[in-house]
Amino acid sequence: MNLQIITPDKQVFAGEVVAVTFPGSEGQFQVLDNHAPLVSTLGLGSLVVEEAGAIKQSFSIDGGVVEVLNNNVLVLAESVVA
Known about the structure:
By secondary structure, the protein is mainly β. It contains no helices and eight strands. It has one domain: F0F1 ATP synthase delta/epsilon subunit, N-terminal (ATP Synthase, domain 1, Sandwich). Strands 1, 2, 3, 4, 5, 6, 7 and 8 form an eight-stranded mixed β-sheet that branches. The protein is globular, with a radius of gyration of 11 Å.
């Protein structure tokens, strides 16, 4: 699935991933390929991106919103630290 992580200043990440784990405002959750459509608020915490080959990247975010639709995941984050 395609993931984009965007802040008000810049695009932080764009690429194909196999899983993303989010710090939801009501608790942590994970999105995998072919996930149902979803819009959720994000809280303070670690956003973990898993690319093919078990390569993982972690980003600290200060909240935001995520939209999942047709294997496209768009994260609009307040601020991101890699």
